[in-house]
Amino acid sequence: MMKRLNGIVLWGFLTFLFTQSVWAGQNWSQWVDELRREAMAQGIDASLFDGIFDNMPEPHRKVLGLARSQPEHRLTYYQYRNSRVSKDRIVIGQKEFQRYQTQLETVGDEYGVDPCIITSLWGMETSYGRFMGSFPVVQSLATLAYDSNRPDFFRKELLYALRIVNDGHVSLARFKGEWAGASGQPQFLPSSWYRYAVDYNHDGRKDIWDTPVDVFASIANYLRQNGWQPGQPWSAEVQLPSGFDQSLVKSRTSKPLNEWLAMGVKPLSSNELPDGNAKAFLVHPDGGPVWLAFDNFRALLRYNNSIYYAGSIGYMADRICRR
C-alpha cells in the first residue's frame, strides 16, 4: 500500500514539474513564436502582438481549470427557465424595451426580426449589457488554443480576436468576456463578430460592447442570416392527440403546419398561426410544454443549440412585451 501511495505521490510530483516546465519555458514560448508568424502573415501589427504576449507569460490558469471541469446538471425545462428568466430580468427588460423602443423597432423593421426577441436575447446573454464577463478575450482564446480539446477552433477564434483589436473596433482593456471567448453585449465569439456584427450608427466601429444600436442590429442580423422569417411566430404551444407517434417529436421531423393539424395536433391558443404551408417540427423539452416550432425557433437554436434556451428566449420576449 505504501509503495502504491509513494508511486502516486511521485507521479503527481512529476506531473507538477512537467506542468511548471511547460508554462515557465519553452513549449508556451515556442507556441507563441509560431502564432506570431501566422498573425504577422494575416496583417496583425507586430508591436500590438508583442505588447499583448509579452505580458502573457503563461496560459490563464483559471480558464484551463474551467475548461477541464465543466459540471453537468440535468434540469427540467421549467427548472432551467426559472433559473434564467427571473421576474427581475423580465421587469428590467420591460424598462429597457421602453427606453430603447424607437431604436429596437427601427432595427426590427429593417431586418424583419421581432424587437421583443432582440431584447430577450440581449437580456439573456448579458442582463442587458450589465454582465459581459471579466476574462481577457485574447488570453482566454490563447489558453484554449494552446491547451484544449479543440485547439484548431480556438486558434482561428484567437486570430479573429487579434484582428478585431488590430482594426480598432475595441480596445484591449475593454475586450473582455466569458471564459471561452464570447464577448460583448450579445456574447459573440470573434468569428460571429466578423460574420454578423453591424456598424449601425456608421461611426466606423462595429461596437457590440458599448453602442446599443450596434448591439441590436448585430443580434437582428445574426438571426436574419440564420433563417429568421419576418412576421412568423417562434412557436405555438399544442396538445397532442392520444396515441400520437412520439418518434415524430424526438426526430424533429418537419412537416407543413396543415399536416400537423390534420394529424390532430391542437394549438392551445387562438393566436394567429402562420400560413398552413409553413414548415414546423414538434418539440417537447423534459418537463415542459409541447410546441410546434417554426423556422424562427431554428434561428434561435443557431444562437444557442438548446431547446431549453430557445424556449426561454421566446417566453421572456412575450413577457417583456406583455403579450
Describe this structure in words.
The chain has helices at 2-24, 26-41, 46-53, 61-68, 77-84, 87-99, 101-111, 115-126, 137-146, 151-166, 190-196, 212-225, 247-250, 257-262, 295-303, 307-320, and strands at residues 135-136, 176-177, 235-239, 255-256, 266-267, 279-283, 290-293. β6 (279-283) and β7 (290-293) form a beta hairpin. The chain folds into 3 domains: 27-69 and 133-188, Bacterial muramidase (Helicase, Ruva Protein, domain 3, Orthogonal Bundle), CATH 1.10.8.350; 77-128 and 195-223, no CATH class; 235-320, Lysozyme, CATH 1.10.530.10. The protein has a 5-stranded antiparallel β-sheet. 38% of the residues are buried. By secondary structure, it is of the alpha+beta class. The longest helix has 23 residues, at 2-24. The chain is built from 16 helices and 7 strands.
Quick structural summary:
The protein has 323 residues and is an alpha+beta fold.
Overall CATH class of the largest domain? Mainly Alpha
Helix share, percent: 55-70%
Query: How many domains is the backbone divided into?
Result: 3
Order of helices and strands: HHHHHHHHEHHEHHEHEHEEEHH
Strand order of the largest sheet: 4-6-7-3-5
Rounded to an integer in angstroms, the radius of gyration calculated over CA atoms is 23 Å
CATH architecture of the largest domain: Orthogonal Bundle
| Extended strand count | 7
Count of helix runs: 16
Weakly predicted, low-confidence segments: 1-26
Report the sheet-strand fraction.
Answer: 5-15%
Distance between the termini: 67 Å
